[in-house]
Write a structure and sequence with these properties.
Elements (H helix, E strand, L loop, with lengths): L2 H19 L4 H30 L5 H22 L6 H32 L2 H20 L18
Helix pairs in contact: 1-2, 1-4, 1-5, 2-3, 2-5, 3-4
Length: about 160
């Protein structure tokens, strides 16, 4: 799977997770949030470690700077939500804001960044990058709970 296909697939999966988490309560809500937080942590990591550095160019740099700032905001919301009881009213408010930020970020990437990346990288380059990113996804998921790294990543945006 090429890099853009992988990221789009992850965007779609996260959107579905948000829909599910809004419709459950109790222990199921906590479990779904943990799954969502893991997915977002993995997604941000592969973008910051592989995708963004590979597509950094004059025509993408501003979008990438905005993207890492958006990631920082999302990470802070995840870290705050991890401290909340899912039955607390504030938890639902945090998830609503998280959903809004994540879906807007995904939409911006797909509409603005991805078309520029298609012009920058060849199909083979996108395929190779996708393989590297897929390998990192497997490694991160193998760690067990990627979300546990998020609180340590809330001080500053990731470097480009």
């Amino acid at each position: 799977m090429n890099a853009l296909e992988l990221l789009k697939e992850q965007h779609d999966e996260v959107e579905q997770m948000f829909e599910k988490i809004e419709n459950v309560t109790g222990p199921r809500k906590k479990a779904l949030f943990e799954k969502l937080a893991d997915a977002l942590a993995v997604h941000a990591t592969i973008e910051e470690k592989h995708f963004y550095p590979s597509v950094k160019a004059e025509q993408t740099e501003e979008l990438l700077r905005e993207a890492v700032e958006e990631h920082l905001s999302v990470k802070r919301l995840i870290a705050d939500s991890m401290k909340c009881d899912p039955e607390d009213e504030q938890f639902d408010a945090k998830i609503a804001v998280l959903k809004e930020q994540v879906l807007e970020h995904a939409k911006e990437e797909e509409k603005e960044l991805f078309p520029k990346v298609r012009k920058l990288l060849s199909r083979d380059e996108l395929d190779d990058l996708g393989m590297v990113m897929e390998d990192m996804v497997k490694d991160l998921q193998g760690m067990g709970a990627p979300r546990m790294q998020v609180p340590s990543e809330t001080g500053a945006p990731a470097p480009l």
